[in-house]
């Protein structure tokens, strides 16, 4: 049985330093868990002379990646350098050298996860990536453990901290999107180019990883239908709240029979649902399993120590598997053929806000259009329009539908604009989380 | 390395049948995870002739416990029979026979956990009990994994489904305790003698187990300060909501430096806190770790398949450890001497509701008592008294304190009754969850 494990680290930034720190501080506990010694022996960096704020205990630094990934003494490679092509090549080479790999790289796993996992299995290696989705939450491990005795039917994740922070501030303080975004940028909570976060691309990568694992189906990033939060207004949140909803950017993966839907979109969630209380930069993933029912995992989505903790927990699994002789078994390759739901098969409830004329016949025109398209209404709220918007239109009408097919609903949306009584369709959002709980 | 594992089951009730079913249905997946075959070979039952609704696949049934626990072929004993003395003796005997043990028995673990774990370690055996706290939530494993690279400072758990169901119905439907309890009993959600649930004893056992594990300190059931929900009124919930709180029965374990507090009590939680949205019979445990920050685990607290899933996940761990040769390491024996906080050292916020005379001087008398005792007030709500209660007293006064020592606060409570202006202290509750998040 393996009695000593050597680890090579690619990258010594925030997460890398956290990993070094945790392994250094918890050497005894780690040994207790896995039954043998675990040591970082080499680290790939850009500059070996740079001063580091972490105790390296004589570990060799190198600027040559091959020094790490071709070293026959190294058993496990941890990739925390980020980026895509270079990281992919290093990981492929490490796997072909029969080294197990732990990565925190969501972009890489979302784009090339299936390829990398296949190469890992071919080489009898583990490839773990817990830190790539919701750093402080052990969600991938929970899915894998759950999967061994259950079948997952749906996942809803708040998996982007920046957008959740923005939506929380908009909702709690009644402020507009632009203002909160600017503040978040000033505070360093949002990037100067926030596109990847606010347009839902970061969340799409994570739900792509979750869907692939949870449904054992190779989901590609292009399969994810994506909408971001940049069009969400304070009014939308206000009216939503009046009808009992909170808005969250939800990564959704759901399955009915053998067909799946994967999407990211601003979504109204009932105020009483646990996801509605996930605030600020926190993340959470809500999972529906046939046997266990509904579970939710909540915690920090990022941060040095939460993310590094996830990387180290993966390393512990790799070492246990090495000693068990079961490496390569845990890399769950997609077992099922991917079948995506058509728009006709996607059933959901929607929240719709329009400005309409306040005159006899408005409601009759609206409701006859909905019923023609087989979309029935659950809630209606009509209010007189106030302020600048009160031009031709005089009524603010908010409707929540019963579950309808996405295709039918989109037909309604298209035709609404042609109705004389409708001045403007202001906004339209998906509603989720109202299953009987 | 171990190539085949035989399991003996003590008990074939709801959970036992679930375990048999899961192992039968997921044989392949299990083997994939642990790298060897796992088979239930004998089951202790009361009646071997009774018809069972689970496929036993030729497994031998016996009414003689020694047939299972003394069988040299059996490697792992799963105890799902319940009760205390008999279960304790069987488990002790199994451990002394060098068999690993998985149990779902919270009463047993709360009372005799430390003794059983010590005997497990003496004999180099594993003793796992994930199913004993919040069946469908992998909370004990998460604590153990978290502990290997973190330090837990506080846990707040909604760990009793019956009381959470009652409080949810009272809060959502504005109904009184007695009425909701009677309905819960009629529906089978509450026992005909509900004492253990509604007086907080069941929750006390669970927080005792969580505290012992999370703080690595032998917490005894007597160390848990316990209050139940039978005195909670609809008015309390209404006024709490006006001030932004939801009421939950919270099992609390918190630590400051090397001293701990363990308690169970009806507690007001801010409406925006994730615990406030844990409704009906769901359980959740909110954990504060120094490295990872705040995490929450949410799911079903009981039920055949959730609980059996937890038992099987423990079995998987045992088998992995057998093949790793690290059994007995995972049984975390309390490492630190128990030091309980005194009432002077327990700092908390409180919600207090009193009936007082609506006359000049009332507020002066109240506030001078509070300030004399070093308890300062954060929120005050005064309303005219309505209905039957309007005898002498005429004002309903609700106050929320800033953090105060429990000792000082209890002095205030005692002396309030002596004030002329106070008619009656109606209720008093702890407030938690308002740390900066």
Explain what this protein looks like in three dimensions:
2 copies of one chain form a homodimer. By secondary structure, chain A is of the alpha/beta class. Chain A has 3 domains: 4-133 and 304-324, 3-Layer(aba) Sandwich (Rossmann fold); 139-299, Dihydrodipicolinate Reductase, domain 2 (2-Layer Sandwich), CATH 3.30.360; 347-431, 2-Layer Sandwich (Alpha-Beta Plaits). Helix content of chain A is 36%, strand content 26%. The first copy, chain A, has helices at 14-25, 27-34, 65-69, 85-96, 106-122, 139-147, 161-173, 177-186, 195-198, 201-215, 234-242, 304-324, 362-372, 406-416, and strands spanning 4-10, 37-44, 60-62, 76-79, 100-103, 127-128, 152-158, 225-226, 245-256, 259-270, 282-289, 293-300, 347-356, 377-384, 395-401, 404-405, 422-431. In chain A, the strands form 2 sheets. In chain A, strands 7, 8, 9, 10, 11, 12, 13, 14, 15, 16 and 17 form an 11-stranded mixed beta sheet that branches. In chain A, strands 3-2-1-4-5-6 form a 6-stranded parallel beta sheet, sandwiched between helices. In chain A, helix 4 links the parallel strand 4 and strand 5. The first copy, chain A, starts with a strand and ends in a 6-residue tail after the last strand. Strand 12 of chain A pairs antiparallel with strand 12 of chain B, so a sheet runs across the interface.
């Amino acid at each position: 049985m393996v009695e000593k494990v050597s680890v090579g680290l690619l990258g010594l930034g925030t997460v890398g330093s956290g990993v070094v720190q945790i392994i250094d501080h918890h050497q005894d506990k780690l040994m207790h868990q896995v039954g043998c010694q675990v040591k970082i022996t080499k680290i790939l960096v850009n500059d070996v002379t740079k001063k580091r704020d972490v105790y390296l205990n004589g570990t060799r630094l190198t600027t040559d990646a091959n020094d790490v990934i071709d070293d026959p003494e190294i058993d496990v490679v941890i990739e925390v350098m980020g980026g895509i092509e270079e990281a992919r090549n290093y990981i492929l080479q490490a796997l072909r050298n029969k080294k197990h790999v732990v990565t925190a790289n969501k972009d890489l796993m979302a784009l090339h996860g299936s390829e990398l996992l296949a190469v890992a299995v071919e080489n009898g290696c583990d490839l773990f990536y817990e830190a790539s989705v919701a750093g402080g939450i052990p969600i991938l491990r929970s899915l894998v453990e759950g999967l061994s005795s259950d079948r997952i039917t749906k996942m809803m994740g708040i998996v982007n901290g920046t957008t959740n922070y923005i939506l929380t501030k908009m909702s709690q303080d009644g402020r507009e999107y632009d203002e909160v975004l600017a503040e978040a940028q000033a505070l360093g909570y949002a990037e100067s180019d926030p596109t990847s976060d606010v347009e839902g691309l970061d969340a799409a990568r994570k739900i792509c990883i979750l869907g692939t694992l949870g449904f054992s189906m190779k989901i590609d990033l292009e399969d994810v239908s994506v909408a971001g939060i940049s069009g969400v207004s304070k009014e939308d949140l206000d009216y939503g709240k009046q009808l009992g909803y909170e808005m969250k950017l939800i990564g959704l993966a759901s399955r009915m029979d053998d067909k799946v839907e994967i999407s990211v979109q601003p979504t109204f969630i009932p105020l009483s649902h646990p996801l509605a209380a996930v605030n600020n930069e926190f993340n959470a993933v809500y999972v529906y399993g046939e046997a266990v029912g509904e579970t939710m995992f909540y915690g920090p989505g990022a941060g040095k120590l939460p993310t590094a903790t996830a990387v180290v927990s993966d390393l512990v699994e790799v070492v246990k598997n090495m000693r068990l002789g079961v490496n390569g078994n845990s890399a769950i390759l997609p077992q099922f053929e991917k079948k995506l739901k058509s728009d006709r098969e996607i059933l959901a409830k929607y929240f719709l806000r329009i400005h309409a004329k306040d005159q006899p016949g408005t409601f009759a025109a609206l409701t006859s259009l909905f019923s023609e398209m087989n979309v029935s209404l659950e809630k209606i709220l009509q209010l007189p329009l106030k302020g600048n918007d009160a031009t031709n239109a005089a009524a603010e009408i908010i409707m929540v539908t019963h579950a309808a097919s996405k295709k039918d609903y989109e037909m309604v949306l298209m035709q609404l604009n042609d109705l004389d009584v409708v001045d403007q369709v202001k906004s339209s959002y998906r509603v989720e989380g109202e299953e009987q709980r």
